[in-house]
Amino acid sequence: MKLKLAGRECKEKTIVKVGNVEIGGDELVIIAGPCAIESEKQLIETAMAVKKAGAQILRGGAFKPRTSPYSFQGLGEEGLKYLHHAGQENNMPVISEVMDPRDIDMLDKYVDIFQIGSRNMQNYSLLREVGKGRKPVMLKRGMSASIEEWLSAAEYIVLEGNRDVILCERGIRTFENYTRNTLDLMAVPIIKQLSHFPIIVDPSHGTGREELVASASRAAVAIGAHGLMIEVHPCPCDALSDGVQSLDFEKFQSLSKDLFTIRNCLDLL
Amino acid sequence: MKLKLAGRECKEKTIVKVGNVEIGGDELVIIAGPCAIESEKQLIETAMAVKKAGAQILRGGAFKPRTSPYSFQGLGEEGLKYLHHAGQENNMPVISEVMDPRDIDMLDKYVDIFQIGSRNMQNYSLLREVGKGRKPVMLKRGMSASIEEWLSAAEYIVLEGNRDVILCERGIRTFENYTRNTLDLMAVPIIKQLSHFPIIVDPSHGTGREELVASASRAAVAIGAHGLMIEVHPCPCDALSDGVQSLDFEKFQSLSKDLFTIRNCLDLL
Amino acid sequence: MKLKLAGRECKEKTIVKVGNVEIGGDELVIIAGPCAIESEKQLIETAMAVKKAGAQILRGGAFKPRTSPYSFQGLGEEGLKYLHHAGQENNMPVISEVMDPRDIDMLDKYVDIFQIGSRNMQNYSLLREVGKGRKPVMLKRGMSASIEEWLSAAEYIVLEGNRDVILCERGIRTFENYTRNTLDLMAVPIIKQLSHFPIIVDPSHGTGREELVASASRAAVAIGAHGLMIEVHPCPCDALSDGVQSLDFEKFQSLSKDLFTIRNCLDLL
Amino acid sequence: MKLKLAGRECKEKTIVKVGNVEIGGDELVIIAGPCAIESEKQLIETAMAVKKAGAQILRGGAFKPRTSPYSFQGLGEEGLKYLHHAGQENNMPVISEVMDPRDIDMLDKYVDIFQIGSRNMQNYSLLREVGKGRKPVMLKRGMSASIEEWLSAAEYIVLEGNRDVILCERGIRTFENYTRNTLDLMAVPIIKQLSHFPIIVDPSHGTGREELVASASRAAVAIGAHGLMIEVHPCPCDALSDGVQSLDFEKFQSLSKDLFTIRNCLDLL
Questions:
Q1: Is residue A7 part of a domain?
Q2: ipTM associated with this complex
Q3: Cβ–Cβ contact A86 with B under 8 A
């Protein structure tokens, strides 16, 4: 693997700062919010609830990469406005996915972190374009990407000048289909070994089942993830996207409390 | 699977016409050429050799999606000029990969078929953009895409108005690593069953090994593929990309002859 | 890969002789019969039909490795008697699966070829035991076995003295679940390259869908398989095991004719 | 999935008792020892060290299922005598793998728990045979077994009368080859949801890399595994089998301490 900038040899540790939040340091960072932004009300409610429960960053998709063109595709710029507003109201940085290099300037007005989704992990035009910007980029692992390919994709971003990359493990595709994907938690210590970027885990896509999100999250904290990205919805049954893997406010609050407890416990080791 | 336009229910058969070539009809179509365009000389020589051996369409990559940013990335527009010229000189339609929606207008001047590569199979911005055009689109299967996801990606293109989609099986990612990918030849009859698009096979990426390309190609013809896309290079050892899976002129000529023989033999069944 | 006896370096070509049939030579060998032996009548009828259609060897399972203990487990020794009898009546060698080293002596009275199933590819006690015998062994590839592991399993057999090993590709497990398994046809040329054993293909398990068996079989012949093993049942809808992937007599006869035509065509290349 | 005896509907919880140890209860159970028994000295030393560090059960392989017949195959009955002796000296129950139904009576004299290895997860003769016995059986997940197939394999055991089954997740085979297998930790909560058996994790085979064993183990405890099975060797570099994934005494002691700390922490949630 030829990594000049993404490899551990070149740097000990990258801590990405967004507002008052540090990703990659000692603090456990929780990113939470709905899979898709559906309305201003939904987002404001969710932002308040997850903030109160301890989440530091708000997520919400405005451009949704959906397998079928007939599925809900997101609210676009209108959704980003809601996201930006909800973030400001609650003093939370916000993250949203970018799918098209032509949208970057527009998204730049609303988001604090650009998310590159799994389907676009090797969309090199997009990687280069966010690499030219200054805002942090969260690069999700591709569904069938090896660790090596993932880090090589990160190299594309860093090579353009932007050093604030956050990696996100979200499950890989295997023969097992009880879960939506197979969450590869070993990616966490491996990424820490091979690179200097923060590594967070997405237990929502990683499992695809709401009842497994808490278990996956606990394991992710115990294995040393710098953070988690969790889908939360005021009413998962009515969600326009991925409701089956979203937590409601109550479950999220309970989980969040547990995660900080486990994180603290690790200091005893 | 919700397919309104890509499904077999909506149409019996799509035959894509490019110049004098029909893809999806009775004739076996062979697309050949180098993985990456390296020079005008390389391309002209290759075009003449593959044309003489029976290939009807010329391929050549000008924008190369490479795992590492330090690998050869292609000659860009300069390469497309060579491709266009070589195609015209030999009366062959040409195909090349597009990676960025912003490049489409430029490529449109030079290519007869747009190729969407495996890494971009779910790059929906790109799919929509080629879907708005009039030139045929060859959509390669993603490395870990199910047949269903692949056809749903085709639906994105057709939904924008462009009905000339050609599907290309190029191997999927599995645990077996003797070959670069595992060529899923069963995709050929399955695609014919579920959709109306022509289906071709790429034995070069599908195996990743020059010595297996002939075997894979024979099987692809026997299973009913409408065509093949084969990497050919004047001197595979010196190739800047994928030399290990490229045929030289002599091997390609010999293979091509065999493939037409097998194709003819199928008429006896 | 450390292969002393199974590797190509040690021998050019193994031709396995069973009765008048040579497996691994120029002739295309077709093994056909029901997944599970259900009754004497079923077997006799099937034997006559497949013999007439050109099959040289009769298959039938008496000990069935089923995922669930509540599925039909086979008729045991009674079934083997039917198999033996049907083989003798039609002058066909017979093959059946052995699952337990303690059953080998008993099976030895009835079968001409021992089959080791996918689930037992690395059941080393069983491999060693059939390796001590004199009858040919057909070793099916494990569901997630690499080519290397498969050949190493063959080495276990040969090391005990029995050199008559036949390898059978039957599909590997991947993320794609439209088919029961992903038939890895490239295994055929690879096995020919790396070892000296005959290699046959099982399109029935390889696809798990009756409507794909013909396509898979054609491709297998074109890629150079020495033979095929195909599930045939007088009335697939009533089969106690794997009916969904079994051909009826008429379809088998039509397919068999096509396969010999394609085989002959290969001599033209 | 048709589970009459292995499913959660039929029983709330199985606690397997071996000597003074309860597997499946509140206590975290650590099984430790060498991959292969190599000598009496090796085993005695290891037993004392892991006992002191908190392990409750001693493991050691006497019959080793190795991919190549030329790899060390284990000491056989001699090794079992060492294991039995080391267990008695240290008041630890012992576990060892059985590969052949004909060996069960012999092993029964020496071991307290029978281990069924991954390669034999669907060796139904072997499953039935250990199912007829009274000693607990630890059933490792097959390399490409779905959760459903794994539980169905357990059903084979229980159906014969033996209800003391322990399941062990040890990684599945995927495209990712940085690790030897992909440890599917989500199997832990899923097994708890679908069945009543204790579920333990093998981080040694699950990762195949000594430097990842600690991370994997921490996550396994946090996700709720009832126990762990960890390979420990006095001198991993000299191990005859799997040295690259074995911990030395010091590392094991440090890890063990951490694991009990995390386990205690879970009581705070």
A1: no
A2: 0.97
A3: no
Question: Is C174–A177 a contact, with Cβ atoms under 8 angstroms apart?
Answer: no
Residue A215 domain boundaries: 14-266
Are the Cβ atoms of D152 and C65 closer than 8 angstroms? no
D18 inside domain: no
Q: pLDDT tens, D138-154?
A: 999 999 999 999 999 99
pLDDT value of residue B230: 98
Q: Which chains touch D (3 or more CB pairs under 8 A)?
A: A, B, C
Contacts of D190 (CB under 8 A, 6+ apart): A178, A179, A212, D147
Q: Which H or E element spans position B180?
A: none
Provide the sign of the torsion angle of the four alpha carbons C213, C216, C222, C225, taken in this order: negative
Residue A242: band (very low, low, confident or very high) from pLDDT cuts 50, 70, 90: confident
Q: Is C85 on the interface with A (CB under 8 A)?
A: no
- The tens digit of pLDDT for each residue in B221-263 reads 999 999 999 999 999 999 998 889 999 999 999 999 999 999 9
pLDDT < 50 stretches in chain B: none
Interface test with B, best of A125, A140, A147 (most B CBs within 10 A): A125
Asked whether the beta carbons of residue B175 and residue C148 sit closer than 8 angstroms, the reply is no
List pLDDT tens digits, range C17-67: 999 999 999 999 999 999 999 999 999 999 999 999 999 999 999 999 999
Q: Number of structural domains, chain B?
A: 1
- The pTM of this model reads 0.97
In a domain, D2, yes or no: no
Residue of D143, D172, D173, D175 for testing the chain B interface, max B β-carbons within 10 Å: D175
β-pair type (D29-33, D57-59): parallel
Is C69 in contact with D159 (Cβ distance < 8 A)? yes
Share of chain B above pLDDT 70, in %: 100
pLDDT per residue as tens digits for the range D253-268: 999 999 999 999 999 9
- Residues A217 and A213: their CA atoms lie apart, in Å, by 6
* Residue B64, min C-alpha distance to chain D (Å): 23
DSSP chain D: ---SSSBGGG-S---EEETTEEESSSS-EEEEE-SB---HHHHHHHHHHHHHTT--EEE-BSS---SSTTS----THHHHHHHHHHHHHHT--EEEE---GGGHHHHHTT-SEEEE-GGGTT-HHHHHHHHTSSS-EEEEPPTT--HHHHHHHHHHHHHTT---EEEEE--B--S--SSSSB--TTHHHHHHHHB-S-EEE-HHHHH--HHHHHHHHHHHHHTT-SEEEEEB-SSGGG-SS-GGG-B-HHHHHHHHHHHHHHHHHHTT-
Query: What is residue D241's predicted lDDT score, i.e. its pLDDT?
Result: 86
- Please check whether residue C3 touches B, CB under 8 A: no
Residues on chain B touching A65 (C-beta within 8 angstroms)? 122, 124
Cβ distance of C124 and D65 shorter than 8 Å = yes
Provide the pLDDT for residue D28. Answer: 98
CB pairs under 8 A between B and D: 8
Assess whether pLDDT exceeds 90 at residue A33: yes
Q: Are strands A21-23 and A16-18 parallel, antiparallel or unpaired?
A: antiparallel
A206: chain D residues, CB-CB within 8 Å: 186
As given in the structure block, the two tokens for residue D33 are 């020892």
Whether residue A39 has pLDDT greater than 90: yes
CB-CB: which of B212, B222, B224 is closest to C262? B222
- The answer to whether position B249 is within a domain reads yes
Which chain A residues are closer than 8 Å to D179 by Cβ? 186, 190
Report the CATH number that the domain containing residue D185 is assigned in CATH: 3.20.20.70
